[in-house]
Amino acid sequence: MKFESGDKRFKFRSVAVIIHNGHVLLHKVVKGDFWALPGGKVEFFEFSHTTLIRELEEELGVAANIVRPLWFVEDFYARGGVKSHEIATYYLTTLQDPNAIPFGQDVRGLEQDVNIVFRWVKLADVASLNLWPQFLKERLTALPQEVEFIHINELK
């Protein structure tokens, strides 16, 4: 879900934290300069955990299971002259067949209108990446046992 008004944007996103064999699944736009966790915009009348199952099927053709919620994040940031207010739900997620995405190589997403690649990245290497939002650099190696609420204001 996304709304825009002039140079302002509101977005409701759901995000998958997929960890397997000491690696986390990340994605980025092919010509982009930052990595992020996979996920997508929540549609009207769609539960946020259902968004992830749909998005992973659309983007990678893989079936997923939601394990539990991790974070509820409210993030204010600016990119490309647009100020964004993003609300995101982060879920620990597993793939029914994690080997469907090969280790050690970039895998192109299936959606034709978005040129993205997915990659398994060692958790130990995450801190050195340009990963957004940046709180993930520390938190992916220390997942909470209960849902945490995180507020980020990069507009200050």
UniProtKB/TrEMBL annotation:
Obligatory cofactor(s): Mg(2+)
PROSITE patterns in the cross-refs: NUDIX, NUDIX_BOX
Gene Ontology MF terms: hydrolase activity
InterPro entries xref list: NUDIX_hydrolase-like_dom_sf, NUDIX_hydrolase_CS, NUDIX_hydrolase_dom
Domain Nudix hydrolase per the UniProt entry, residue ranges: 8-144
Pfam families, sorted: NUDIX
Keywords carried by this UniProt record: Hydrolase
PANTHER family documented for this protein: GDP-MANNOSE MANNOSYL HYDROLASE (PTHR43046), MUTT_NUDIX FAMILY PROTEIN (PTHR43046:SF14)
Protein name as annotated: NTP pyrophosphohydrolase including oxidative damage repair enzyme
